[in-house]
Design a protein that fits this description.
The chain is mostly helical. The chain is built from 19 helices and no strands. It has 2 domains: about 50 residues; about 325 residues, Up-down Bundle (Na+/H+ antiporter like fold). The radius of gyration is 23 Å and the shape is globular. Keywords: Antiport, Cell membrane, Ion transport, Membrane, Transmembrane, Transmembrane helix, Transport.
Length: about 425
């Protein structure tokens, strides 16, 4: 475990040096950290030796998920949700639960997991991640409604899936350990902390007695996040729901605080993401990949190519989206970075089926990262009307359109 920090530093430096190339090609920094973790871990070289019982695994998973949910929540204030709710509402209100149920059915009937464990797998694999669709969200050639849909959905569904993960994990732990009253109190307390702390902090800064300097302004969001984390720890409120609620509260009531912290916060969340991916990869081994059997791998393929597409197709019936847009939305799911951390949390939870659930989740996430993070550029080019085409092709198309009455007479030479 002592080699973890130097290993992360070396891989991070390599990722930075290759980041420009990754933005233009199918090379993926997420895949780089996953593969590096596997190669450096017990699955290959054994330089980074980790077990699920190691404290660093649980601590890193907790901090990574907190940072990701806080930054996700900050991307979507209530005003953003109200202004752009029609299409994301379909994806979140119908697509998320349908993806969960279809994935759970596959885990139950194909892999043979009990319904509690299967529903837990569905909840873990339901969220999407904006990192895996970055080329679409940041491409001006992609229709704005599609970019907005992917951006809002990926920013909200981690937090929406969280209560289901917590509930199904408690159910999978056994009826003796399931206390719905305590679980509800933990979730409610997390929401209260997540709303109250940033709201009070923002209102204090808006008084005449307090004002953050330009130099310290980006630290405002960090201080709010740390205070939410500390209070959640002290009161046993749900840390992750508190983080998500805090992010939304900052985005809603503190536009200036949101803008000043946005870039800084994304960098912090990205560091935790990459570190968790390295640890996740180090926990993967050839015996684990083989132990799921052909049914586990078939489930992973079906989760990628059927679960989310079926859910999206049903959710966006008569929505006005083109087939190309629906295909792009359907492809970038159902696994996000939160799935990685949810899987690590389950692995360290101590439930009887923790290893079985983790194995199924792990192979699905591995396929997702390798496929989704390396195809975002390819899918984005579907919408690039300026990509190079033969001159005769453009001329032929214009002649065809004019013949159909679709274009005015040409104003210049063909």
């Amino acid at each position: 475990m002592g080699a973890l920090l130097p290993a992360f530093a070396v891989v991070l430096l390599l990722a930075v040096l290759l980041s420009s190339l990754a933005n233009r090609t199918i090379l993926s920094t997420a895949a780089l950290f996953l593969v590096a973790g596997f190669v450096l871990g017990d699955g290959a070289l054994g330089l980074v030796s980790l077990t699920p019982a190691d404290e660093i695994v649980a601590v890193l998973a907790e901090l990574a998920l907190f940072a990701v949910l806080f930054s996700d929540g900050m991307r979507v204030g209530w005003r953003d949700l109200r202004e752009a709710w029609r299409l994301p509402g379909r994806a979140l209100g119908w697509g998320l639960p349908l993806t969960l149920l279809v994935t759970a059915a596959g885990a139950h009937y194909l892999v043979g997991l009990g319904w509690a464990q299967a529903l837990l797998v569905g909840a873990i694999l339901a969220p999407t991640d904006p990192v895996f669709a970055a080329a679409l969200v940041g491409n001006d050639k992609v229709p704005p409604r599609l970019r907005q849909l992917l951006n809002v959905e990926s920013g909200v569904n981690d937090g929406l899936a969280l209560p289901f993960v917590v509930l199904f994990l408690a159910i999978a732990a056994g009826s003796d350990d399931l206390h719905l009253g305590e679980l509800g109190l933990e979730l409610a307390l997390g929401i209260v902390i997540g709303v109250a702390v940033p709201w009070l902090a923002i209102k204090l800064e808006q008084t005449r007695w307090f004002s953050a300097s330009t130099q310290y302004e980006p630290l405002n969001g960090l201080a709010i996040g740390l205070l939410v984390l500390a209070l959640g720890k002290l009161t046993h409120g749900n840390l992750f729901l508190a983080a998500f609620a805090a992010g939304i509260t900052v985005a809603t009531f503190g536009r200036r605080q949101r803008e000043s912290f946005e870039h800084f916060g994304e960098l912090i969340a990205e560091l935790f993401k990459l570190a968790a991916l390295l640890v996740f990869g180090a926990l993967i081994s050839f015996p684990l990949l083989g132990s799921v059997g052909w049914r586990g791998w078939l489930f992973a393929v079906l989760a990628l190519f059927l679960a989310r597409p079926i859910a999206i197709w049903i959710s966006f019936l008569r929505s006005g989206l083109t087939m190309r847009e629906q295909a792009a939305v359907a492809w970038f799911g159902p696994k996000g970075f939160a799935s990685v951390v949810y899987g690590l949390l389950v692995l360290g939870s101590g439930i009887a089926a923790a290893q079985d659930v983790f194995q199924v989740v792990a192979v699905t996430i591995i396929l997702s990262i390798l496929l989704h993070s390396s195809t975002d550029i390819v899918v984005a080019r579907w919408f690039d009307d300026e990509r190079d085409v033969p001159a005769w092709h453009g001329a032929a198309r214009r002649l065809r359109d004019r013949a159909r009455g679709g274009l005015a007479p040409p104003t210049g030479p063909e």
